[in-house]
Amino acid sequence: MAAATLPSAQEWRSIGPEPQQQLALAPCAATPPNRARSATKMLPRFDPGVMETYLDDMREMKIRVHELFRQHPDLLPNVEEGLSKEEHRSLVRRSLKVILQAGYSPLDLLARDPRKYFYLGECLSMVDLSLMVKSGVQYSLWGGSVLNLGSEAHRRRYFDDIAQFRLPGCFAMTELKHGSNVAALQTEAVLDTLTDEWVVHTPDEGAIKWWIGNAAEDGRAATVFARLKVPDPNGGPKLVDHGVHAFVVPLRDESGNTLPGVEIRDCGYKVGLNGIDNGAIRFTHVRVPRINLLDRFASVDKSGRYSSPLTSQARRFAATLGELTGGRVGLTGGSVGVLKGAVTIAVRYAALRQQFGPPDSPEVAVLDYQSTQLRLMPLVATAYALHFAKGLLIEKYVDMKRTREPKLVEEVHALSAGLKAYTTSYTQAALSTCREACGGHGYAAVNRLGALRSDHDIFQTFEGDNTVLLQQVSAMLLKEYRQQFSGAPLTATYHYLRASLLGALPNNPLVTHDTEPRHLRDPAFLSKALEYRTARMLFTLSLRLRKHGPRLGAFHAWNKCLNHVLDLANSYVESVVYKTFLRAVAGCVDPECRRSLKAMSDLFALRLIEGDMMFRNDEYIAPAKSKAISRLVVQLCSELRGVALNLVDAFAIPDHILRAPIGLGGNGGVGGPQPDAYREYLVAAGFDV
């Protein structure tokens, strides 16, 4: 898989100030300037508006979308009101219709301009995650499956009704007993050649479709994944099973009544996302026309003859799932949006909140404590890193849809799997960190961190369980590795990898022991360190699998090495994210914004190296150098504290969308925590102030 390339030496020479130069520090917004230490009297040295412009070339769309909810504040869910699932579902339904009435057609964007489609999803993430997911179910999953798996006839028949929400639909893949293992789904679609119909049937309780979004209330049709079975062309008594395919199956009539043979139950309250009407569906010999097979990759004629341009069931299955990567891309963007919102709340509150201080002196801001800086500044840096990585993923996805180039399809599949898994896991952990960093007030429902944590939790599971997705990444890395060394003896493989590893680590004790900040912040050192880690993991995993395979078999050998498999995938993703961050740093023309971006990219990489024992166990980094890295991490967090408010202000989340009293920014969400944030909090609690 191709990874992001590094900036050239010429690009790095253009970055400007030397990396060891400190960023300007700013006094806490809650600390009067005459009380601030002399080292913190300088104002932040970059304009958040300039940084926002660099981050976001579609911000006008975000402004317009968020303005819709300023005009319709009744559509913004109030977590303190304790909405029932029915009330929340109604709210989400109305919100989606307002978006459509405002001229936004998500399905049109998905088909014609995917960048804007994914951007719209990220804009909605801090409005209401249930709304974002509802839109994703209707357009990316239901609509996207029809567009990507069906024919032009299917597109003509369904596109307009799906686009305008006249035909709410579902993506019926998961079953009670099977989720990640899609190839083992049990629902059947058997061709009746006498009536030219598919008979869709749930053979047992384990095959009931489960957790199906839009099913409990709204869905009138579904893309149902079922085993395609046809009569034996040789006249045998048994049906021929061609594996899992997708079929359009009507569920309800226009009055909302379920159709004959369709039984739907509500999955009930969930930990979060209760604005989504998840349901369970049982089919009892439901008949649909033969043309309801979404037949881009396979077709069946009236006689039951099966044909496909792809020669194997495995290739057809891979092609079908490969067309569904857009859902993972969308979840990655939405998760990044949540991460931005969470760190905005936490950083603003930590800059406002004052606790303790030197004797006979004013209390200091919580954000001035080293422990808080070490908690929050890496989160801010990673939010920026994942923002740029998400942009790379979307760019490659768009190119893939345009070119259909097989190698790019494979790369996007792996990158979307890895980034979705890494981003959603990171964001979920960050939500807990932000909640804890905000102390008791972070536990208040009105400040949203708890609700965001509950709603976002499932992002780690749907559209592919994160553990399964990471295994797919490592499997593809191993596939490329084996193809490169196909037929080569083990010694040749070892010598090649050894040379590669030595390239990442020059056999020079001066480098191993170099503790100078200039070296530790050198992108060449940081990139090579992360590359070394991934290369070494890939090599050692391959050796372990080769060792255990003959004795245990492939499945048990893989399971025995599973932690190693997951570590390899995360290592690869982190290397790609860092290289993408470097290109973003080099591409920023504003020198002050570029300095902050460079500091965050350094912090992102150094934190990874600091936390991985492998570098010390391999003697890649000497003990003194390891300690120097830890000191530098502390220093970078301190430097970034001075521009922390500007960094989160650059995300430009307006107050009426953020809706967390302790994290409001004033002036619509710009300019750090507003002085009367406590007043807003008191008002939210019901006090007259």
Automatic annotation (TrEMBL):
What organism is this sequence from?
Answer: Volvox africanus
Q: Which residues form the Acyl-CoA oxidase C-alpha1 domain?
A: 322-478
Q: Which branch of life, at top level? A: Eukaryota
Return any one Pfam family short name: Acyl-CoA_dh_M
- Residues in Acyl-CoA oxidase C-terminal domain copies: 522-663
Cofactor(s) essential for the protein: FAD
The answer on whether this UniProt entry bears the keyword Nucleus reads: no
Family, similarity comment? Belongs to the acyl-CoA oxidase family.
Could you tell me what this protein is called? Answer: Acyl-coenzyme A oxidase
Q: Which UniProt keywords apply?
A: FAD, Flavoprotein, Oxidoreductase
Please indicate if the UniProt record lists Transferase as a keyword.
no
Q: Which residues form the Acyl-CoA oxidase/dehydrogenase middle domain?
A: 170-286
What PANTHER family does the entry give? Answer: ACYL-COENZYME A OXIDASE, ELECTRON TRANSPORT OXIDOREDUCTASE
The record ties this protein, via InterPro entries, to: ACOX_C_alpha1 (IPR055060), Acyl-CoA_Oxase/DH_mid-dom (IPR006091), Acyl-CoA_Oxase/DH_mid-dom_sf (IPR046373), Acyl-CoA_oxidase (IPR012258), Acyl-CoA_oxidase_C (IPR002655), AcylCo_DH-like_C (IPR036250), AcylCoA_DH/oxidase_NM_dom_sf (IPR009100)
